Amino acid sequence: VNKFFYKVIFIDEVWSEFEKIYDFKREHVEKSDLENFIKKYFTEAGTELTDCDLDDWKEMPKKLMRIQDNHLRKWALELNRIWLRLCREMQPDKNPDRTSLIYVPHRFIVPGGRFREYYYWDAYWIIKGLIACEMYGFIPNGGRVYYLRRSQPPLFAGMIYEYIEATKDFEFLKTILPAVIEEFRFWQNNRTVIVKKGKYAHHLFHYNTTTNVERPESFAVDHMIGKQVPVADRRKLFQDIASAAESGWDFTSRWFRDKISGAFDFPNGVPTSLMRNSKEQWDYPNGWSPINHMIIEGLRKSDDPVSQEWAFNLASKWVLGNYMVYQKTGHMWEKVGI
């Protein structure tokens, strides 16, 4: 009761102070007032987290040491060391009610760069990377409290598959299987659309969030976009924006137009779309690892020798393209020009 009372009093105090500097009937807030407000009531970003050690990290994982090319093997070992900079855990003495991070009791891997939280579909490739480097810790899937009303591409079952394939830990499979089933039912109950074709009705999953306000992590951008449409249409607009973000492709003009001709003709991989000059990050000229990996694996696992050859060629272009970027910049990037 005391904790609840304190929480209510604190929130009321913060809200009251905010109302003093922000009149909802106007758009302008003095920058100095806002800066002072944030300084008084908020701590520095990231202070709810602390770095942590990866106890099972190995300097020379066997799979990486099997790479025959000396330059690529050296590069892979350099990338392996980056894991040591990406481990985080939540501060145990921090009040979980005072942060937007969803509390998790275990360590986790962040994507790096400006991202301080973990992301759902990122975790699939993080798990594959950890397994390749002989680290078998399981990665939680989640993020911030303001992500609770939308998901991302449902790769949870795929994560479990990769983990079990590497560890043969079938006891863990027994404990985690109910969670896999629960997520599948979520998509069945909340993200299913019926598409009729002739006399047949097909049940398909689609991205469709229930949130209908500006995204908290991109509030200013969404707010400005919302001002371009009538007030009556804004809730639907914000729902569409959040649903597009749920796909992981935030954003791409492929939501409005699709064109695939010539997608395999680029020197460094497959672009996310062929839409030029859209200025969206999930469009040309950007290539992203998840998309290229999915295409490569789909072709590689086919029984068609031609498709398998396409997979090998595309994998070679993607790896060598990223290698060249790394040599020039010293960094791995979430997207590269293809």
From TrEMBL:
The keyword Transmembrane helix does not apply. GO terms for molecular function: alpha,alpha-trehalase activity. It catalyses: alpha,alpha-trehalose + H2O = alpha-D-glucose + beta-D-glucose. SUPFAM superfamilies: Six-hairpin glycosidases. GO terms for biological process: trehalose catabolic process. Its EC number is 3.2.1.28. Keywords: Glycosidase, Hydrolase. It comes from the Eukaryota. InterPro entries: 6-hairpin_glycosidase_sf (IPR008928), 6hp_glycosidase-like_sf (IPR012341), Glyco_hydro_37 (IPR001661), Glyco_hydro_37_CS (IPR018232). PANTHER family: TREHALASE. Belongs to the glycosyl hydrolase 37 family. This is Trehalase. It comes from Dracunculus medinensis (Guinea worm).
